[in-house]
Fold these 4 entries.
Entry 1:
Amino acid sequence: MSNPIRLVIFGRQGAGKGTQCAHLVERYGVAHISTGDMLRGAVASGTEMGLLAKKVMDAGDLVSDEIINGIVRERLAQDDATTVGFVLDGYPRTIGQAEVLTEILGDRPLHAVVDLDVPLEEVTARMKARGRADDTEDGIARRLELYEQETRPVLNWFAERGLLVTVDGFEDEDVVTSRLEEAVNAAIEAPCC
Ligand code: AMP
């Protein structure tokens, strides 16, 4: 069996991360771990944590590091994550989360952190067209603002550690997919991993 591949994908909400993650799953067999999907799942099944998260998500705010780190820690301990690897989507979103992730991974570090780069005007238009429950005008604006405030520093944190690869995501889906594959292949083949 081939070695597990460990990736994180970044991008503003609406940058096409979900779509590109599906391609990564198909191409590399990794588990797609989306904290947004996991939280929406908890909301849908009406768990206590889901009820708590719902309010925060509806306001476009971030769920506490404590809750989200706990969810991710559990998920990354599952068999698929340790054997085939994973692509993390929507996590880490704060420096605190990035530090905990590094601690969780220990001696099985990330191969690459990819930033799927799509301009602000384009993602705003895409999200308005998408019409998800939390895609209200205020919700969109709040999430994009938070992305700059909280998540941009996380990208810089990974860049300082030599892990960040930026992929231009403002192109047709298949073009973006092949750019992404190129970036991931280069990271997997790099001598450090
Ligand atoms: P997403 O689908 O990634 O846009 O996530 C939807 C919502 O879930 C976000 O607006 C946050 O409220 C919450 N969320 C998802 N991932 C995280 C995270 N890593 N840290 C805090 N909140 C999160």
Entry 2:
Amino acid sequence: MSAAPAPKGAAGLAGGSRIPRHVAIIMDGNGRWAEKRGLPRVAGHKAGAEAVRRAMQSAVDHGVEVLTLYAFSSENWKRTSEEIADLTGLMRFYLERELATLHKEGVKLRLIGDYSAFGPDLVARLDRAIDHTATNQRLTLVVALNYGSRAEIVAAARNLAEKAVAGDVDAQMIDEDALAGELQTRGLPELDLLIRTSGEVRLSNFLLWQAAYAELMFVGTLWPDFAERDFAAALEQFAARERRFGGR
Ligand code: IPE
Ligand code: IPE
Ligand code: MG
């Protein structure tokens, strides 16, 4: 990654522009990108991984605090074993290749989803990367791996139920904060902006709870084509939107 200009977060706010604290992206369209070029789907996933580097650098450059990326959904196990192997192979490769850069850029890695499903080798590598970057503060990069929002909410409800049965919480006192505190996104700032690429207009079981008041943006660009200027354009659009949160 190139030398980063000073984060624009605080300065941007003072200057009147509004930088979202937490941006999430449903990175869709890798397969179509490859098909358009007569290439195997894995070529699209490779190009998609390069787009991840660009998005991360953009988030750092613009002073976004948290970038959450949907990399593998709990429904993506429906794909062929070949594609799944390609995806996990790429994860391993990029993790090795990019870890030093992540660390140098001050990026802290965090995961959501049940990534234990990816097997002991990748799990160990991911855990090492999390440990290695744990004290970084510039950007928190949250990667959703084997993530499904409904399962996340169910697990949160189950935890609260168990605590209630054990007498550790009063069921009558369970409120939104209590449930949010059991989600895997606990402690992160509220989701401000959710972007989906590739022209599909759906959430595909991503951050259903967290997106309650996020600004939604659906762009036609296929994920591997998503460039710095697209990220900047999304932030510009975000700044121009009026968020009302139910007020008038
Ligand atoms: C998104 O691209 C990447 C993953 C879901 C892992 P797709 O692979 O879904 O690409 P399309 O939607 O088939 O074009
Ligand atoms: C959502 O994309 C999951 C990720 C981007 C990782 P999909 O391509 O799996 O979603 P659907 O199947 O079009 O809803
Ligand atoms: Mg897709």
Entry 3:
Amino acid sequence: MAVALVTGGSRGIGLGISRRLVADGFDVAILATRPEPEAVAELRDLAGRADRVRYVQGSVADLADHARLLDDAVAAWGRLDLLVNNAGVAPSPRADLLEAGPESFDRVLGVNLRGPYFLTQAFARRVIELRGPWTGWPDRPVATIINLSSISATAVSIDRGDYCLSKAGVAMATQLWAARLAPEGIVVHEIRPGVIATDMTAAAQAKYDALIDRGMAPVNRWGRPADVAAAVSLLAAGTTPYSTGEVFHVDGGLHIPQL
Ligand code: NAP
């Protein structure tokens, strides 16, 4: 069975991704900071076997937790096929560029950019060890890495500059790792969501409701975690081995410039 690691796979978009990957037949290991939540039991039920879902309590911002996540999955299943760098945080509270402080900057960049950047490095090293010597271009990728960025990688929000910077960084990290890891047989893609209904956006629900009332996007509704999970499922299927570094928008067309 193929093995997927999903950071922040316990709530919101990440939980949608975990559900979809379990249904697609992946064994799934989740990294998140809270004690094991109820959702993990639900995923084990969905999987039909408790040993198909593992939960590691830790932070993607802590490089020691990366090693724990990888060691745990390799010890349990002996392989690694997919990393979904999903975990992310919003600035709390949102603050104008002229007011926002370095604490929020360091926290947001630490979780959203530095963490996934080094988890990608650790994951790739482990995949290369498990893969053994290079034997030429495979019909399917040796492994796939999917980074969750955001429409904020390109759209400015002047009340959360740190978040926008972190997601622009994720977009560049995707290109960097796609170029470096292609010769190892590993492909790297970016999923760029728009406005998805989760705990993260609950704080700004009234703002997004009003934007949707005014016709925010061509597919003019809130996105759902399952919408993002469907894109992960496509990119994780291993059926497009000559593509890497792709940006897949899941935003109802919000990124399309219109006059
Ligand atoms: P969410 O509802 O706040 O869920 C975040 C998930 O990440 C939770 O499972 C949380 O679990 C985990 N998490 C938070 N900090 C962590 C850390 N330091 N280490 C490991 N796990 C951590 O957020 P979401 O809306 O699902 O967002 C998921 C991703 O999509 C994020 O990268 C976000 O930036 C991106 N995104 C979201 C939207 C949107 O509209 N919602 C749009 C574009 C992009 P614990 O609480 O247990 O740690």
Entry 4:
Amino acid sequence: MSRTVVVLAAGQGTRMKFPLAKVLHPVLGRPMLAHLLEGLAPLQAERTLVVVGHQAEAVAAVARAYGAETVLQSPQRGTGHALMCCREALASGPEGDVLLVAGDVPLLPVEEVARFWSDFEERGPEASVVGLHLANPFGYGRLIRDTDGALLRIVEERDASSEEKAVTEVNSGVYFFRTPRVLDLLEGLDASNAQNEYYLTDVFARLAERGTPARLFLASDPERWLGINSQPELARATKRLRLDVLDRWMTEGVTVVDPDSTWIEPTVRLGRGVTLHPFVRLCGASVLGDGAEVRSFSCITDSELGEGTLVKEHCVLEATRTAEGCILGPFCRTREGTVLSGRVHLGNFVETKKARLAEGVKANHLSYLGDVTVGAGSNIGAGTITCNYDGVHKHPTVLGERVFVGSDTQLVAPVTVGDGAYIGAGTTVTKDIPAGALAISRVPQKTIEGWAERKKARQEASEPTKTR
Ligand code: UD1
Ligand code: MG
């Protein structure tokens, strides 16, 4: 039997009260639609269709990144109408099962979905719906059953009577249907309801009328099936996923000193013996090697830290790679293309960009190192700046091995400094320096003995007499 997944993702998400299509809102760093599509991958459906409408291009881009086809729904006239828009695409495919899911359920537990789907495949009937028990069912469609438990209909919050509102069993928005029969059920749906929309959920009353009521699956962990409709719900889903990810890493032996304030995105990978202090944020494709330690208020994005690397407080690392034993911070910022060999030290207020620093290089204070290559064992003094930009182009700076750069040096690129060279403090380097040389460009110091006293005397003589 062929398997198709249909994801409804065309709605605006009015209740979010935010100018971004709902399914694009990030949950722990990734759009909710991306979570859903990645989560569903193990089902190995032959096809995945994503219905797009509001901000269609941006939503379609996420869909395509996960190999899904897209179907345009314009205008968006409700969940039933969204499925109607798939009619052609579904009719062109083989007969089989459809898993229909709203795009706003990022935490969907795929193992349970798979179990329900197999069960549905084996035992039918034409349609099934996944129900949730919620202590507070507000906002969700209520499942109205007869005394034998058969599903009579689904009533939306806005259309429900007070008696129906008291029902605590709700529609998760996840369904299984058999094609092509589901398409017939959509014929003649109408929009005579509080929202003037074509409700997909009206299909269930039709099934009951026909004497083939839908089967109900009850989810074991309702929180993970909840559709996100508002900002508080988005924040709760993010928190739930964040804690799940942290739990997984702590179970693997990672020390998370304060799980309440630690943020690890699902795409991050951690080695053994990693320690994370409070208020650490690890994002994107970051990988932390064994024994790495990250201290408070540091944020690491798309970066790889070598074994035993220590990132002290308040560092911001982006697209950076470090080898083993590096020490960064506090307060350092490494930008794209920073590549540090073993045991490099970057101290406070050091910024790097496209910087390749070889084994043991130290830049401990107040520097900007951009478009630079530094050989092993070199020392970059406090306040060293690579002047890499002439207003039009960026130029490289190349320092050899064991170069000593005195404090407050400006390296006006392009410039090359040979192995073992010394640069005196306060130097503006505008010409290449050969290996082993000393370069110094500052004005020789002049010292005038007794100058301050004489200045004071001159001032006093020229001032009118002070009255006390
Ligand atoms: C829907 C269900 C409700 C259920 C709840 C579960 C209906 C009528 N109601 O309500 O019974 O309890 O989900 O979370 O189906 N969408 C489109 N095109 C549209 C409208 C919506 O693609 O024209 C998409 C949205 O982008 C969203 C999904 O369908 O991803 C669900 O829409 P939403 O507005 O969130 O429906 P709910 O009111 O939550
Ligand atoms: Mg919803």
